[in-house]
Design a protein that fits this description.
It is a single chain. The protein is of the alpha+beta class. It folds into 2 domains: 257 residues, 3-Layer(aba) Sandwich (Aminopeptidase); 115 residues, Alpha-Beta Plaits. Helices cover 31% and strands 24% of the residues. It has a 6-stranded mixed sheet, with helices on both faces. The protein is elongated and about 80 Å long.
Length: 379
């Protein structure tokens, strides 16, 4: 049986009440460590081995381990940080309304954390023939430094990434390439604009090029699970004063790549695309993560399909966003992304998660662990 709704709701309210906004984002003053301390204490109370990894500026990952001395290890990765909150429901004000918990992080991803912690409560009572670990990691919402730090120091056989997937097993995700485009101009008084060169106009021309990308920069063929690649010009800034011809303009570009695309090769194609335009410079990427996928016959995928199939979630899906799986897949680790909640609620002003789904996920996670112990043995 899954834990009762009251226990699930009580623990989730405690977690949502802990401010864990990423400190690299507006309003992120306290960081993730208070939340990490809570997770560590919960693990100690269960008798799990608990350790910390400092990642950056005192911010630390927390690792819980149920280590039975087995050859194989399954890792759950669940991030600690949230994005900032806007609107009336603040990150430290969880609200329980009927069968839902509202508040920043309820869906993304403190619901997954509750499911994982209660899963460990059950595994401690009846240990599987498998080592099971939980990496509670920092910085997923910004640069994924916590997951990359964890991936460099641990060698699990497979990884379950907790994210809101409505309990559907996700086995493919898009990658991210982010960079700036700079347009250079020449300032002049707007009474004599012909004496200058308008950088904003040059940027508008560049954006027109971006909106009609050739196939070598944006492939036409869709991925069977992730669909087509995407590009968004997400911010633009330029000029200093209404009566001055702008000498500079800057735009930020977000390119979502399909599994199989090489981020640096994609970036090089953008550089080549603008190589004949003297006013335009393509900046170095500040985020570059490949899209990743697991094969449908990977043991962790079979285990997840079996566990989710008991709830009628039989379809293996892909998603257009990136998760911490991007840190583990390049290390040769098969993964599945799985958790309670709908991604449409993540980052919203009225973020919530259904308590019944968080409770159901406890059983799904446990079934996945036990199925993986059997599946992995069969290869």
């Amino acid at each position: 049986m899954n834990p009762d709704i009251e226990r699930v709701g009580d623990l989730l309210q405690q977690l949502v009440a802990i401010d864990s906004v990423n400190p690299d984002m507006p309003g992120g003053k306290r960081g993730e460590n208070e939340y990490g301390d809570f997770v560590a204490e919960f693990g100690r109370d269960l008798g799990l081995a608990v350790s910390r990894q400092e990642v950056v500026d005192g911010r630390a990952n927390v690792l819980l381990e149920l280590d039975g001395g087995h050859e194989r290890t399954l890792l759950f990765d669940i991030h600690l940080d949230t994005v900032p909150q806007e609107g009336e429901l603040g990150s430290a004000r969880p609200v329980r309304d009927g069968g839902r918990i509202y508040g920043r992080g309820a869906c993304d991803v403190k619901g997954s954390m509750v499911s994982a912690l209660f899963m460990f409560e059950r595994l401690v009572r009846d240990p599987p023939p498998l080592n099971v670990a939980l990496a509670a990691v920092v910085d997923e919402e910004y640069r994924k430094r916590g997951a990359h730090h964890m991936a460099a120091g641990i060698s699990p056989d497979a990884v379950v990434v907790g994210e809101p997937t409505s309990l559907h097993p996700v086995i493919a995700q898009k990658g991210i390439l982010r960079f700036a485009i700079e347009a250079a101009g020449k300032s002049a008084h707007t009474a004599n604009p012909e004496l200058g060169s308008n950088a904003i106009y040059s940027m508008l021309d560049a954006i027109s090029v971006l909106r009609a990308l050739p196939p070598e920069v944006m492939p036409d063929a869709p991925h069977p699970l992730c669909g087509k690649g995407q590009l968004t010009v997400s911010t633009i800034s330029g000029g200093v004063q209404v009566n001055v011809v702008p000498a500079s303009c800057r735009a930020m570009v977000d390119r979502r790549m399909l599994p199989g695309e090489d981020p640096m090769a994609v970036w090089a194609a953008f550089v080549e695309l603008f190589s004949g335009r003297e006013a335009i410079t393509v900046g170095e990427p500040y985020a570059a993560e490949a899209g990743v996928e697991s094969g449908p016959e990977a043991p962790i995928v079979r285990a997840a399909a079996a566990a989710c199939g008991r709830l009628g979630r039989t379809e293996l899906i892909g998603v257009p966003y990136s998760t911490d799986a991007a840190a583990y897949a390049p290390m040769g680790r098969d993964f599945v992304v799985l958790g309670p909640g709908d991604i449409a609620q993540a980052h919203s002003n009225r973020e919530y998660v259904e308590l019944a789904e968080v409770s159901a996920c406890v059983g799904v996670y446990e079934d996945l662990v036990r199925s993986f112990a059997e599946e992995d043995g069969r290869g």
